[in-house]
Write a structure and sequence with these properties.
Strand content: 15-25%
Number of domains: 2
Oligomer: single chain
Number of helices: 9
Bound molecules: nicotinamide-adenine-dinucleotide, zinc ion
CATH superfamily of the largest domain: TPP-binding domain
Radius of gyration: 18 Å
CATH class of the largest domain: Alpha Beta
Helix content: 25-40%
Number of strands: 9
Largest sheet: 6 strands, parallel
Distance between the termini: 12 Å
Order of helices and strands: HEHHHHEHEEEEHEHEEH
CATH architecture of the largest domain: 3-Layer(aba) Sandwich
Structural class: alpha/beta
Length: 247
């Protein structure tokens, strides 16, 4: 068995309170491309341009056409993978208390986790920019872009665009979860998007062990994280759970 898988299984086994910070990488095995890295959306478009609130306000048709329509189709089809299901199992084992996710795909909740902070909002709901009316994304008429509310206002997804603030209560709850955990799992995030990448630093400063799961190194590796278990999220989480069961 991989030494680091065993170490992670022991660290989680000994912890009373585990938190997880997840990013786009955890959903790659569910068929959702990440922004950065191999096969990432970045290879085709610049998300800093297309997922920026200024671009959306200036040219909503372009953002819906190039980014949001595709995202909706991909997210609609996606199912939780072994990593999401493994985290749900860790919650049932009473180890994992809170997931802070940067993802907008809703897959952690679909897997069964109950305390999920959607740091960057979600793509499941749209909000009218004029009257504030909310509508499930699946029920919004996309035959006309941009989609419109009955009042004539434009719908926007309830996710946080680049250039927008993280809802303050999400930020506060994430900081609390990071400060009180004994182990933080950092799974599938490039740790380049602020302020999400600061969450593991808070965990570390409060004495938690920080374990990264990612096929690649990130700016957190060696500096903030105690160690990196290299590999795909689904494989590594499955191996860690198997190691916990066999010890
Ligand atoms: P990112 O795209 O910047 O980085 C993805 C990370 O995942 C990289 O470090 C990569 O090495 C790693 N990775 C790739 N395949 C993996 C696998 N199989 N298992 C584990 N790790 C893997 O992602 P980010 O840090 O989350 O930042 C991007 C932002 O874009 C997020 O804030 C999020 O809001 C948004 N986004 C969300 C989704 C989604 O909801 N699924 C998808 C794309 C982008
Ligand atoms: Zn409206």
């Amino acid at each position: 068995m991989d030494k680091l898988v065993k170490r992670a299984a022991d660290d989680i086994g000994n912890a009373g309170n585990v938190a997880a910070l997840t990013g786009a990488g955890i959903s790659v095995e569910s068929g959702i491309p990440p922004f950065r890295g191999k096969g990432g959306i970045w290879e085709k478009i610049d998300p800093m341009e297309f997922a920026h609130i200024d671009t959306f306000m200036r040219d909503p048709v372009k953002v819906w056409d190039v980014l949001l329509k595709d995202m909706k189709e991909i997210i609609d089809k996606a199912k939780p993978n072994a990593a999401h299901l493994g985290l749900a199992k860790l919650e049932k084992m009473n180890k994992l208390k809170t997931i802070i996710t940067q993802n907008v795909d809703g897959l952690h909740q679909m897997a069964g986790n109950t305390d999920v902070i959607e740091f960057h909002g979600n793509f499941a709901w749209q909000k009218c920019m004029k009257c504030g009316n909310r509508c499930e994304t699946g029920k919004v008429d996309l035959s006309r872009i941009p989609p419109k509310c009955k009042c004539g206002g434009m719908f926007r997804p309830e996710c946080v665009f680049f250039g927008e603030m993280i809802p303050p209560d999400y930020l506060a709850r994430s900081q609390q979860a990071a400060a009180r955990c004994d182990v933080m799992l950092v799974i599938g995030t490039s740790a380049l998007v602020q302020p999400a990448s600061y969450i593991p630093v808070i965990a570390k400063e409060n004495g938690a062990k920080v374990i990264e799961i990612n096929p690649e190194r990130t700016p957190l590796t060696s500096r903030v994280s105690d160690y990196l278990v290299k590999g795909k999220a689904g494989d590594v989480v499955t191996d860690i759970l198997a190691a916990m069961e066999s010890s």
